[in-house]
Design brief:
116 residues; mainly alpha; 2 domains; 64% helix; flat
Length: 116
């Protein structure tokens, strides 16, 4: 912090917040964090648009939700970033879809160790 005298309350606040800031940087790098943020945004948008959804046919709402779940399952099958409890299901589902295609010179991301 520039122009902050040593020992001032702002300086001590900066040193106290530093470990928290490092953890926040790590958190924002996590894939699952962004998945949760996106899910939260979708839920908030759904709640906000509730009146509109009430006026639309329930079959159409169901179709859109089924489409979204299908896209999410395909994404998890391609990238293998599914939650741990869905791994057996995605392992069963993956052979029915083509494997991911990587550009020339790129290799697939390393397989993560099993979650415990």
């Amino acid at each position: 912090m520039a122009n902050v005298p040593k020992g001032s309350p702002i300086d001590s606040l900066g040193t106290a917040v530093d470990p928290l800031w490092k953890q926040i940087k790590v958190l924002f790098g996590e894939h699952h964090f962004w998945t949760i943020v996106c899910a939260f945004v979708v839920v908030m948008m759904t709640i906000t648009c509730y009146r509109l959804l009430k006026s639309i046919s329930p079959a159409l709402v169901g179709f859109v939700l089924l489409l979204l779940v299908g896209i999410l399952l395909l994404h998890w099958t391609q990238t293998r970033t599914e939650p741990a409890f869905l791994t057996p299901f995605i392992d069963w589902l993956a052979p029915f879809f083509p494997s991911a295609v990587y550009p020339t010179g790129h290799h697939p991301p390393p397989k993560l160790p099993p979650r415990s």
